[in-house]
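@channel sequence for tomorrow's demo:
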Amino acid sequence: MRLAPNLHRIGNDIVAAHLVVTPEGITLVDAGLPGHWKDLVTELADLGRPLADIRGVVLTHGDSDHIGFAERLRRELGIPVYVHTDDADRARGGDKPKTPMGPLRLGPLVGFFAYALRKNGMRTRSLTEVVPVADGAVLDLPGSPRVIGMPGHSPGSIAVHVPAVAAVFVGDALTTRHVLTGRTGAQPAPFTDEPERALASLDRLADLDAEWVLPGHGAPWRGSPAEAVAEVRRAAAV
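structure tokens (generated this afternoon):
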């Protein structure tokens, strides 16, 4: 799905990954679920671009519904996969703390897990090699993505700011569709390790210059990061 010139999404409002497309190559932000591989291939075919044009995968964090087909790209094409140092172990299959599920509704919960099954979520392969990155790094990838540390959802959660496409990719630092309740609008994401820390990290988004805020779950947010952050804080206070 084309969101804007040079900005594309694969997946849907349940689980999504994003592409920054430039003449020099493509940067992929997150890798969804393993079954999104076919969506990626289809999207690139529509663009007339080969898989080899992907120069790197930047993970917003190391959870299984974001690493999806990343290991396949790394293993089959040698494409590097970047993840914050503090989530490198999680991306390689390390332990994830058990977090309370919180409020849920049966329909959205079943829908989320059914979609994950259809997209081979139970067959996600952990990374065997990653390129660790740190807060503030500007990566030598198409669009010159900048890493913004957003600890809370996980220790190494990041946002990825790409001014070239006026976008910030936020992973699970916030969501616009709660996968367990179906509630829409900018709000805190479920399965967050440290909810209060995650809310505090949102301050790092508020002053960014962007027209798109793109979460890993939910519809794209068209508007300023400051507006999205304000809505998340309102939702958290309810």
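heads up for whoever presents: The chain has a mean pLDDT of 96.
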